[in-house]
């Protein structure tokens, strides 16, 4: 037991034998229709995903990464969450992070601070494990209560409607496949290294990414429960000679008439213009097979981030931006900002080297009103980063209200955009503004956490 909460409620670390109870609880509290809790239809995808995480087979998470609040009077789980270890990369500089997930409370036990109690434990675990940040995708506003800021884009992508799909290029003579013909075959565990290598190369296009190594891809292909909400179908793009040219992965079922694609990468030297029409055609065939009389395939959705080679390979239209309501952001928390900035020092110094501030010596004091940062530069190197607090006499060189600086740090908003959005944001003048713009440019991220 981690804490006695009173009234028969105890907060404790989960055990392997709690798996079915937690899976059943999550299956009712997440994505299930309303009505009396015990009568809700359990969501099978949530239950399967919970079992995957608690089974001991998941590459990064286990039952001991879960917290439960138990009502000992009824011997039932009434609230639960978990912390899934991650490996993130900030422009190539990797570090450990934590993903709080499956946060839920029984309707009869809400507004008692049970989630806050659990987040205090999750944040302590995260600190003890050396995590430099946490990230979570969640409901509007809620996680701001626990020190999070929406600062990394999520949900960006493109959609193409079935009637606008380009036809596959014609092959050679009748009965013969062209050397430039491609098809999809199901990925196997032996493809994990190939997929991981392509995925690692693709991460170089973005600022913040999650690192999926060979073991994680092998789990995705061979071990994840296909009923899980997180389960993907992974395919290898093959040429006519049977050589792998890329991979694509998508959700196992249609959602609102669309087949959602979460990953699509091609090997170096393979033409996106040449391969993409074949991939689109085969994805459409897969979507039609998943369709029913009630749910026809209407479109393919590519949730591949703000920027991706596919978007350049297909003109717009027929490739359309997703509806504005589909755009959202990950909440992120950075508990020790100076420590984080010191860790990504190589990235910040590279940015300075290619800016007008190359070789600059000076300092920038950044106010968050209740606290702040002091950045010291010596000949273009970040020699010191530390906490600093503004005073009436010393307001600093720039100011960012609350946690809005995180939007700048993770490239989600530019200085100009933050200045326009927040009246109490003062991004500085002269040298300070130039330095902040050089250190923290607007850049796309493609964060795809491990679940």
Give keywords.
alpha+beta; nine-stranded mixed sheet; 12 helices; 20 strands
In words, what does this structure look like?
- By secondary structure, the protein is of the alpha+beta class.
- Helix content is 27%, strand content 27%.
- The protein has twelve helices and 20 strands.
- The strands form three sheets. Strands 1, 2, 3, 4, 5, 6, 7, 10 and 16 form a nine-stranded mixed beta sheet that branches.
- Roughly what percent helix? 25-40%
Q: How would you describe the shape? A: globular
Question: Uncertain segments of ≥5 residues (pLDDT<50)?
Answer: none
What is the number of strand segments?
A: 20
Looking at how many chains there are and whether they match, the oligomeric state comes to single chain
Overall average residue pLDDT: 94
Decide which structural class fits the backbone: alpha+beta
- State Rg: 24 Å
Largest sheet: 9 strands, mixed
The amount of beta strand, in percent, is 25-35%
Q: Terminal Cα separation, in Å?
A: 26 Å
């Amino acid at each position: 037991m981690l804490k006695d909460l009173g009234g028969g409620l105890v907060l404790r670390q989960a055990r392997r034998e709690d798996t079915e109870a937690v899976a059943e609880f999550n299956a009712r509290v997440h994505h299930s229709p309303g009505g009396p809790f015990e009568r809700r239809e359990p969501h099978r995808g949530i239950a399967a995903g919970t079992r995957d995480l608690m089974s001991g087979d998941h590459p990064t998470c286990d039952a001991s990464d879960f917290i439960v609040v138990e009502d000992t009077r009824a011997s039932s789980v009434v609230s639960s969450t978990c912390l899934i270890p991650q490996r993130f990369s900030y422009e190539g500089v990797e570090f450990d992070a934590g993903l709080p997930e499956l946060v839920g409370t029984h309707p009869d036990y809400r507004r008692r601070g049970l989630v806050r109690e659990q987040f205090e434990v999750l944040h302590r675990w995260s600190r003890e494990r050396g995590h430099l940040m946490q990230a979570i995708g969640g409901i509007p506003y809620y996680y701001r209560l626990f020190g999070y800021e929406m600062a990394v884009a999520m949900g960006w992508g493109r959609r193409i409607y079935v009637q606008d799909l380009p036809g596959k290029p014609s092959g050679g003579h009748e009965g013969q496949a062209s050397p430039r013909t491609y098809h999809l075959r199901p990925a196997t565990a032996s493809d994990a290294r190939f997929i991981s290598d392509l995925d690692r190369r693709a991460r170089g296009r973005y600022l913040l990414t999650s690192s999926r190594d060979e073991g994680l891809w092998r789990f995705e292909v061979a071990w994840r429960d296909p009923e899980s909400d997180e389960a993907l179908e992974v395919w290898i793009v093959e040429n006519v000679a049977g050589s792998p040219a890329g991979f694509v992965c998508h959700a196992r079922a249609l959602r609102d008439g669309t087949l959602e694609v979460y990953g699509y990468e091609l090997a170096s030297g393979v033409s996106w213009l040449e391969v993409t029409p074949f991939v689109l055609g085969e994805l459409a065939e897969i979507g039609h097979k998943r369709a029913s009389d009630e749910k026809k395939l209407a479109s393919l959705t590519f949730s591949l981030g703000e920027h991706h080679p596919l978007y350049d390979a297909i003109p717009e239209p027929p490739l359309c931006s997703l509806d504005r309501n589909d755009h959202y952001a990950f909440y992120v928390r950075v508990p020790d900002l100076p420590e984080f900035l010191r860790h990504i020092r190589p990235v910040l110094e590279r940015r300075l080297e290619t800016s007008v501030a190359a070789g600059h010596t000076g300092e920038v004091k950044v106010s968050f009103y209740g606290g702040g940062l002091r950045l010291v530069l010596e000949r273009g190197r970040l020699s010191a980063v530390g906490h600093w607090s503004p005073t009436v006499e010393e307001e600093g060189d720039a100011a960012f209200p609350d946690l809005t600086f995180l939007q700048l740090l993770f490239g989600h908003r530019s200085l100009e955009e933050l200045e326009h959005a927040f009246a109490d944001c003062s991004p500085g003048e002269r040298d300070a503004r130039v330095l902040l713009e050089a250190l923290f440019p607007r850049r796309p991220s493609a964060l795809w956490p491990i679940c």
